[in-house]
Design goal:
There is one protein chain. Helices cover 22% and strands 27% of the residues. The chain is built from six helices and 20 strands. β16 and β17 form a beta hairpin. The protein is elongated. It starts with a helix and ends with a strand.
Length: 369
C-alpha cells in the first residue's frame, strides 16, 4: 500500500477513537441484532409485573391466561440522518491542516482528496454520536424523543408512553424556604422501585438542582462523602464527563449522586445547550439493571466505489468491544460530479434510542414553572 494511503488510514483510525458513547448513551446498549436493514424496527416497551401467580384447584383445568406485560405500540420508524460535504478539486491546492506552505504534497492529488474526505466523514461520525447521546438524554428526562432539522424545526417526535408519575414536578421549587428535596427524591425513588421492581441506585442532577440540594439541612445530615471511593463502581460515567459526589439516603433508598454539565450545539444554533436541564433530577436503576437500547434502521446502499474502498469502509461500526456492546453504525459514501469537478463525502445513519424497561427510571423537575 502506498505510504500516503497508510497515513490517511491512520487518520481514519484516530478519528474512530473520538467517537464513543456519551454520558447518557452509556445507559443504552446495542447488540448485533439491533442493527437492522428494515424501514421499521419492532421492539416491546416492557411494563414490569408485581402480580403473584395464582394457583389452580386442579391441574386438569389447564393454565391461567395472563396478559402480556408489554406496551403494545412497539413498531418504530428510526429517524434519518444524512450529512455531506462537497469537495471542490481546486481546494486541493490549499494547505492542509498540519502542513506548512511549502510542505511536500501528501503523496498525490488523490492522497490530498482522500485526506479531506476522511476529515469530513470523521466529523460527521462525531456529530451522529452526539445526536444519539441527545436522544438518550431526552428520554431520561422526558420519556420522549424530539429532534430538530438544520433549520431548528421539529422533524421527529416520539412519545414512549411513560407513566406521568415518573416525571413529577416538585410542589415547592428547590432552594425555596419550604422546599423538601430529600422527600421529593425519595417519593420518585419509591415510584421507580414499585413500578420497575428494581432498586433505584443513581441520582443524576443538573447543576442548579445540585446547588439547591446542598442548601438543604436534611440532605446535609444524610450525605456520605464515600471515602472508600465507591463511585468507581460506575467508571464509565466518570470518564464521560460525570462528576461523582458521594452517596445519600433518600427515604429507604441509598443513591449515588452524580452531576453532568455537558453541552452541545446545533447547525441552527451555535449557542451551547445542555444535555441535562439545570433543574433536572433523574432517579434510575444501575445501567446493568436497565434494558435501554439504541437500534438502527436500514439504509439502502451500493457500497463504497473504487478507489475509495482503500481508504474508507462503506459501513463502519463504533463501539467498545470490551463493554460487549456496539454504538453507532454509519453508512459512508463518496460520489463524483464530473461536470463540477467535485467529490462529495456522505454519511448516513438511522439511530433510535428506546427505553425498553420504561418503568425503571424517572425525572423530577425541581422548579415549579
Amino acid at each position: 500500500m502506498p505510504e500516503f494511503l497508510k497515513k490517511v488510514l491512520r487518520m481514519f483510525t484516530d478519528g474512530r477513537r473520538n467517537v464513543e458513547r456519551g454520558f447518557f448513551s452509556f445507559f443504552f446498549k446495542t447488540t448485533e441484532e439491533d442493527y437492522t436493514n428494515a424501514e421499521y424496527v419492532e421492539l416491546d416497551v416492557e411494563r414490569t409485573t408485581n402480580t403473584v401467580a395464582p394457583t389452580l384447584r386442579d391441574s386438569r383445568t389447564g393454565a391461567v391466561i395472563v396478559k402480556s406485560d408489554s406496551w403494545k405500540e412497539h413498531k418504530f420508524r428510526p429517524p434519518y440522518i444524512g450529512l455531506k460535504e462537497p469537495i471542490d478539486l481546486m481546494s486541493l491546492l490549499e494547505r492542509m491542516p498540519g502542513e506548512s506552505d511549502d510542505a511536500e504534497r501528501v503523496g498525490s492529488w488523490f492522497g490530498r482528496l482522500a485526506a479531506k474526505i476522511v476529515r469530513a466523514l470523521s466529523k460527521f461520525h462525531r456529530m451522529i454520536g452526539l445526536q444519539v447521546d441527545l436522544q438518550a438524554a431526552q428520554i431520561m428526562q422526558t420519556g420522549r424523543v424530539t429532534l430538530k432539522d438544520d433549520k431548528d424545526n421539529t422533524s421527529f417526535d416520539l412519545d414512549f408512553g411513560a407513566a406521568v408519575t415518573h416525571f413529577p414536578t416538585a410542589a415547592v421549587g428547590w432552594g425555596n424556604a419550604n422546599a423538601t428535596p430529600v422527600e421529593d427524591v425519595a417519593a420518585l425513588a419509591d415510584v421507580v422501585a414499585a413500578d420497575g421492581q428494581t432498586e433505584p441506585a443513581l441520582l443524576i442532577l443538573g447543576d442548579d438542582a445540585w446547588k439547591n440540594l446542598l442548601k438543604d439541612d436534611i440532605f446535609k445530615e444524610f450525605v456520605k462523602k464515600d471515602g472508600l471511593g465507591l463511585g468507581t463502581l460506575q467508571p464509565g460515567l466518570r470518564t464521560r464527563g460525570g462528576v461523582y459526589h458521594g452517596m445519600a439516603d433518600f427515604g429507604s433508598h441509598t443513591l449515588e449522586i452524580w452531576t453532568f454539565s455537558g453541552t452541545y450545539k446545533t447547525l441552527a444554533n451555535s449557542t451551547p445547550q445542555r444535555f441535562l436541564d439545570k433543574d433536572a433530577a433523574i432517579v434510575t436503576a444501575r445501567p446493568e439493571d436497565l434494558d435501554f437500547r439504541t437500534v438502527y434502521g436500514g439504509i439502502p446502499s451500493l457500497g463504497m466505489k473504487e478507489p475509495f474502498t482503500q481508504v474508507v469502509p462503506s459501513v463502519v461500526t463504533f463501539g467498545n468491544s470490551g463493554e460487549g456492546t456496539g454504538f453507532i453504525r454509519v453508512n459512508n459514501r463518496v460520489f463524483e460530479d464530473e461536470s463540477q469537478d467535485t467529490y462529495t463525502a456522505e454519511a448516513k445513519c438511522r439511530p433510535l434510542s428506546i427505553p425498553v424497561s420504561i418503568d425503571r427510571y424517572g425525572c423530577l423537575k425541581t422548579q415549579v414553572v
